[in-house]
Specification:
CATH class of the largest domain: Mainly Alpha
Shape: globular
Largest sheet: 3 strands, mixed
Bound molecules: zinc ion
Structural class: mainly alpha
Distance between the termini: 24 Å
Number of domains: 2
Number of helices: 13
Number of strands: 5
Oligomer: single chain
Radius of gyration: 21 Å
Length: 335
């Protein structure tokens, strides 16, 4: 989906969704059953809704959820402007869903060594102070991180640890800028855990996802600020800005759209409405139209995207990606 080759992007998009289309009824009944289960438990436990039940677990008031959706709606014109910009920058007469992920500028070809990535992160996180940097260095130098892809190793990246051990980080580092941000992100989780474990007794050291992503995305924000400040060419700056805008689209707008979708389908489940594949696709389509705005052609295939989001089986989880996302102040007026 990130290839500069548009035909490749289009075929990849259509061939993947062709499979999802074939299983739409199976996946709709799986999902509908999951929704019914959530409603059943909520009603049995005398909660007003499944959303109230799931948010109560983390003691998050439901107003937070509504406020997120409302606020993102208020700023949708910015998302629409981003689509217009994307259309112009890619020079296409119609912007399609398969044009959503390609970077707007050429990617730098040279791979960033892991040694260099560590230096970049250390430089970027300098505002956090000497103590933080010393801990970061300790993590880098004391084998907290399993760096590269390996046989049998799971994909993605995460930070984990137990009370009484230092944090452990799993990466599948591939030398791209994206993965330098992943390193900053995961070390944010690691140091959050380290500080929590060293300041709190065992009972209170654990933290909720709602606050966890603040530590990690804050690090990403500091890193982008630093890289933008020292970018030498226009191309480099554009590439970084593209990365930054994409994180707004992917974390703030996309996850809030998912959150709104969940909110709608859980309400419908509670109202005993039938949630068929057609109904789910219709709801999903309407949201895509609202979020992407008039400059995006909402290809029919994207109506099936809800089928492939595993998080929907962990109800009312994804909104926390959006609430944990913070933007650095110098760009507040920018976009
Ligand atoms: Zn994270």
């Amino acid at each position: 989906m990130q290839s500069r080759d548009r035909v490749l992007r289009e075929s990849a998009f259509h061939s993947m969704y062709k499979s999802y289309r074939q299983y739409k009824n199976t996946l709709a009944s799986c999902f509908a059953a999951n929704l019914k289960q959530a409603v059943f438990y909520a009603e049995t436990r005398k909660y007003p809704s499944s959303r109230a039940m799931y948010l109560h677990g983390n003691e998050i008031p439901e107003e937070v959820y509504d406020n997120l959706i409302e606020t993102v709606h208020r700023f949708l014109p910015l998302m629409h402007r981003y689509c217009r910009l994307r259309k112009e920058a890619l020079g296409v007469s119609e912007l399609h869903m398969y044009d959503a992920y390609v970077p707007l500028t050429e990617m730098p070809e040279e791979a960033i060594s892991f040694e260099r990535a560590k230096e970049m992160v250390l430089e970027g996180l300098a505002p956090l102070g000497g103590e933080y940097l010393a801990l970061l260095k300790e993590g880098f130098d004391s084998r907290w991180i399993d760096i590269y892809e390996n046989e049998g190793k799971r994909s993605g990246a995460y930070s984990w640890g137990t009370y009484g051990s230092h944090p452990y980080v799993l990466l599948n580092y591939n030398g791209t800028l994206d993965h330098v941000f992943t390193l900053a992100h995961e070390m944010g989780h690691s140091l959050h855990s380290w500080y929590s474990n060293h300041s709190q007794p065992y009972t209170y050291a654990g933290y909720r996802i709602f606050v966890a992503e603040v530590a990690s995305t804050c690090n990403e924000a500091l890193l982008i600020r630093h890289l933008l400040k020292k970018a030498e060419s226009r191309e480099e700056k554009l590439y970084l800005l593209n990365h930054f805008m994409e994180s707004f689209r992917g974390t703030l707008f996309r996850q809030t759209m998912f959150a709104e979708f969940e909110d709608i389908v859980h309400r419908k489940a509670q109202a005993r409405e039938a949630l068929t594949a057609e109904a789910l696709c219709g709801i999903y389509r309407k949201l895509n139209e609202e979020y992407f705005g008039p400059d995006m052609v909402i290809d029919e295939d994207i109506d099936y995207e809800w089928e492939r989001i595993p998080h929907f089986y962990t109800p009312f989880y994804v909104y926390q990606y959006a609430t944990g996302f913070r933007r650095p102040s110098p760009f507040r007026a920018g976009f």
